[in-house]
Predict the structure.
Amino acid sequence: MSAQQWIARHAIGQTVRGTALVASDGFSARYDLDRLKGVFSRPAHKLAGQSYAGRILVLDTAKGGVASAWMLREMASRGIVPLALVFNSVNPILVQGAAFGGVTMLAGFDVDVTKEVPHGATVEIDPAARCLRVVG
Amino acid sequence: MRLNDEEQAILAGEQGPVPKQALEHQVAVGRFFGADDFVPVTQAHIMADTESLGPSGVDWLESLADERIGRTMVRIPTITDPRGTDFAKAGMLKQADWMVGLERRTVLAFTKLGVSMTDTCINYQTIQAPVRGEHVAFGDTGVVIYSNSVCGARSNFEGGPSALAAGLTGRTPRYGFHLDAQRQATVRIRVDHTPRTLNDWGALGGVIGRLAGNYWSVPVVEGLEGAPGSDALKHFGAAMASFGSIALFHLVGITPEAQRLSDVGGDRLPLAHRVGRAEIDALQQGYAVDDQVDVVVFSAPQLSLYELRDLAALCDGRRFARPLLAVTSPQVKPDADRMGITERIEAAGGQVLSGMCFYQSYAREIAEANGWKRLATNSAKLVNILGGYGYVPMLASMERCVDAAETGRLT
């Protein structure tokens, strides 16, 4: 495996390419986001104030409540939604939300993916190959 | 994923488009987690407030409810988590008509699907607690962690679409906490201080949730003295699930699967953490950023009859300078009314709300409409959530919160 490509144990969704927003922090659509403005809103979050719309979020783990299962689809219906989600580990809620909302997701790596992927890099996610690669 | 004849027939559309759509969703989730097959479930519990669903989610629910071909009703007892309003008090909360309208549409759609509108996140206290080994499909993380840990039932976090799917198909993918292996402890923690108040129990749950770190972690906790009551473990579990996404914990000698440390493999784990009074206090101090309070809220989870009774005793003889909201379930509220508990709280200027939960009720919008920012509560779960909604939440005992409602200051 090259240093710029990582294989996940779990994958769902379509192939996408976009800019990575990377942080060693968790993710919950209810706890962390202002979903109307499309920014991380929980002050303590490492991506606080940053826009997530159309970005590929590379984060440590899924946190918080079950609302995210509905919210990803609701966010997608307004076009203010992450392009994809990548986690070191994920809980069922985000997977259910990704399946319901049609959002691409990878999870489960042999490395801490938040330390490997450069913040702001252009990355491609290929769920069929369970692959995350840096392309620019 | 291995499918039996009935499941293959459902996927082929033989029972109509609603069960087919539900099972397709479940298969996608099951395949993601490598589930071998499905497991039958006896109950489902759906989190579906309309702030989460949005108009598109409500449209989707209505499309299911209006389907006329094939099987369109849930096939197991299927109940709901709190709604996004108390219809009788939406005006007091200054909720907009469109919010209440979405809620009414959602209730109608669920009713057409055969869902029972219990509107509670304490169904294990008020509707029917699951028993050890019972496979269920529960939403609301607090419901799941209590049912798994205190009751010994088996559920993953089932978000609204998945819990509804389980209600419609009577099954769920067999992965995670439906499996024996997943229920073994993964992190061993010793507690040197047994909490006495609900906010301290919540704070302890929050500390352990942060330490354990993710959904697949199963803390086993030693050192607690005595047998905590249901409300204590309600706050403890809800906070642990909220801070750490934890779905199962074991308390040695207390919870049913861990009568001994070795029952859950804890004897093979090194002691990873010690938690004492200092850590419990530190979590709460982290939220103590102001002494002025705009609103006091008791919610998340909904209050039991005993919590409301204790609150009423604290309200006697007071006159509040700040709004005080106490949120309970539609099952508890009539008892509180009948026993005079509601009257005592409301005589002091408080409000007892039913069938909703504060953070699931358009918390950002009602904050702006009412000028609420600095919020005092005894719920560790609530303080963890509300920061993202623009509040300055502060965690304190029920007694100090009631004092704050009277004086406007949290001291």
Q: What stands out?
A: The two ends of chain B are 57 Å apart (CA to CA). Chain B touches chain A through 47 residues (CB under 8 Å). Residues 41 and 170 of chain B are 6 Å apart (CA to CA).
